[in-house]
Design a protein that fits this description.
The protein is of the alpha+beta class. It contains nine helices and nine strands. It has helices spanning 2-5, 32-45, 49-56, 78-92, 110-123, 129-139, 196-209, 247-263, 266-296; strands spanning 14-16, 22-24, 99-100, 147-157, 160-171, 174-178, 189-193, 213-219, 238-241. The strands form two sheets. Strands 7-6-5-4-8-9 form a six-stranded antiparallel beta sheet, with helices on both faces. A three-stranded mixed beta sheet has the order 1-2-3. Strand 1 and strand 2 form a beta hairpin. Helix 5 packs across helix 6. It is globular. The N and C termini lie far apart (64 Å).
């Protein structure tokens, strides 16, 4: 919280997002109008109200250290590089200010999102989970040996619904994750999980420790390593409703996605899914025509178990 208060010297017309938080719609530095709204919110939620802001504003406060992006050496392994990336993201800190400084539109092409990531590095302001995913994508661009895919969670706690997202990582037969959260257990995961199922169960256990129930998990397509790509990230490729799936079904869905991830590119995975959808529609249409013809002849055909 106090980190951002030190940045007052650093103006943006802002609007409120769906969750009631301010969203920076323009550029830096922050506008006096936005600073006023941020201070007003801080006074509303802080125990000391205006006394807190009076003690801080206008004071000669110490400079806040700006994190430096990781510089990789050729001798470092991929897991070591991923750890340095996570360390840098964590140093930016989670954003508790009530203002989202970097607007992330999921329908933007990858190259535009990478420009936003560059701005995150330049401004070094606190970020949230979606911003952290975009930043992780940028920082892993040159790690072409890894597969990166969006991994989103929808959870519930005391009749409230919460959403969270991390960047799933697959490398050399192991799964892990990069990201940022209020909870250390809901972001970075070492590249130690042999299967996607194990990685997801790890997250589910972590959520359980926070008294959250995981309702739905969404897996996106692997993201292109070309930072100049005009492709739009497919954030939702496979969706799993945990409460509706048995453990066996859950594992089967994870294994299906993993096999596709290992052997195919995002284009191929998307094409396969589209072909399956077309095939499914054709099968239903054929089955409907057969039933219609049978009904006209006074016969009803049923599929009996083998």
């Amino acid at each position: 919280f106090f980190t951002i208060l030190h940045l007052e010297s650093s103006g943006i017309n802002a609007e409120y997002g769906d969750e009631g938080i301010l969203i920076n719609k323009e550029s830096f530095p922050l506008s006096p109008e936005l600073w006023h709204k941020m201070w007003k919110r801080a006074e509303q939620i802080h125990p000391n109200k205006k006394k807190m802001s009076a003690e801080i504003r206008g004071q000669d406060l110490p400079e806040v250290a700006i994190p430096t992006p990781p510089v990789f050496r050729s001798t470092q392994s991929v897991p070591e590089k991923l750890y340095l990336i996570q360390e840098y993201i964590s140093k930016l800190q989670y954003d508790y200010t009530g203002c989202q400084f970097f607007e992330i539109k999921k329908n933007r092409p990858l190259c535009r999102l990478m420009e936003v990531a560059k701005t995150m590095i330049k401004e070094a302001l606190p970020i949230k989970c979606l911003e952290a995913v975009v930043l992780a994508l940028y920082l892993t661009t040159d790690l072409v040996a890894i597969q990166r895919f969006p991994l989103a969670f929808k959870t519930s706690f005391e009749n409230n619904t919460y959403k969270h997202i991390v960047l799933g990582i697959y490398y050399n037969g192991k799964f892990g994750a990069l990201g940022l959260s209020r909870r250390d257990t809901l972001m970075y995961k070492d590249l130690k999980h042999d299967t996607l199922y194990e990685l997801l169960k790890d997250f589910i256990r972590s959520y359980k420790q926070c008294y959250h129930t995981v309702d739905r998990i969404k897996l996106g397509l692997p993201v292109n390593h070309d930072s100049q790509s005009m492709e739009v990230i497919m954030w939702k490729y496979s969706s799993m409703r945990c409460s509706k799936l048995s453990s066996k079904q859950f594992r089967s869905k994870c294994d299906t996605y993993s096999k596709q991830l290992r052997g195919q590119t995002a284009h191929q995975m998307k094409y396969c899914k589209e072909q399956l959808a077309v095939s499914d529609v054709s099968d239903r249409s054929s089955a409907g025509s057969s039933r219609s013809m049978s009904s006209k002849n006074g016969n009803v055909t049923r599929n009996e178990p083998a």
